[in-house]
Amino acid sequence: MSTVYDCSRPDGRESGLAAAATAVRAGGLVVLPTDTVYGIGADAFDPNAVAALLSAKGRGPDMPVPVLVGSWSTVDGLVMSVPRQARLLIEAFWPGGLSIVLPQAPSLSWDLGNTRGTVNLRMPLHPIALDLLREVGPMAVSSANRSGLPPAASAEEARDQLGEAVSVYLDGGPSGDPVPSTIVDLTGQRPVVLREGAIGVDELAEVTGAEVDRAG
Predict the structure, then answer these.
(1) pLDDT band for position 180 (50/70/90)?
(2) What are the pLDDT digits (tens) for 76-111?
(3) How many CA atoms lie within 13 A of 151 on its CB side?
(4) What percentage of residues in the chain have a pLDDT greater than 70?
(5) Strands across the sheet containing 30-32
(6) Burial of 47 (C-beta count, 10 Å sphere; 0-12/13-18/19+)
(7) Distances (CA, A) of 123 to 11, 26, 54, 86
């Protein structure tokens, strides 16, 4: 049975974060607010939990799940290396609406879908999300919706779509403007924007000092 916690009240936030952390550690799914839309999350290192996340969304491994982190330093343990351009972008835009694709560390035993040896990383600008991430570590997080339906802008919308597949719903109130994060791929010679969103291409080019391509 799933439980909704009103995180606008201090006691609700405290008990909700504790319940969410317990659920994540037990391989369960949680819904959490982020700075874009609500997300459905699981322990990034639990393949069964990530599979359950994809199943709850009605999605297959062909669309791999991004990973949210609670600090800049967490990235170093998840990727092969952090190139200078990535450092510059992290310092400029994290926490915030920028997702960075890098080659993952080969030693990691996770299964996020068909990632082709890469990982999509972001640090969200939302206090509830950051509190949970700092408690449980990196989480696989996707938008809290069934595949093909609009992303949830509230915990209520998320519950309407995902129901009892999720153990804990953290209600942080309505999300802000539903602008997706910009996704930039740094696995090649030059940055490539895979999805334009909260951060503009010109901003990326200014920070990196490099020409930024658009996918396709």
Answers:
(1) confident
(2) 999 999 999 999 999 999 999 999 999 999 988 899
(3) 21
(4) 100
(5) 3-6, 168-171, 30-32, 39-43, 139-143, 67-68, 118-122, 98-103, 182-185, 192-195, 213-214
(6) middle
(7) 25, 23, 21, 13
Q: Span 11-21, mean pLDDT?
A: 98
Whole-structure pTM value: 0.95
Under CATH, domain 3-177 is a member of which superfamily? DHBP synthase (3.90.870.10)
Tokens of 196: 């334009």
What is the maximum span of the chain, computed from C-alpha positions, in angstroms?
51
- Is the distance from CB of 175 to CB of 124 less than 8 angstroms? no
Nearest CA-CA partner of 123 in 136, 144, 138, 135 = 138
DSSP H helices in the chain: 10-25, 47-57, 84-93, 127-136, 155-162, 201-208
**140: CB partners within 8 A, 6+ apart:** 41, 42, 43, 44, 49, 50, 53, 65, 66, 67, 110, 112
Q: Which long-range contacts (CB under 8 A, 24 or more apart) does 14-17 make?
A: 16/168, 16/170, 16/171, 17/128, 17/131, 17/132, 17/135, 17/170
Per-chain mean pLDDT for the chain: 95
- Yes or no: say if 172 and 155 are a contact pair by the CB < 8 Å rule: yes
Domain boundaries, the chain: 3-177
CA-to-CA distance for 88 and 214, rounded, in angstroms? 19
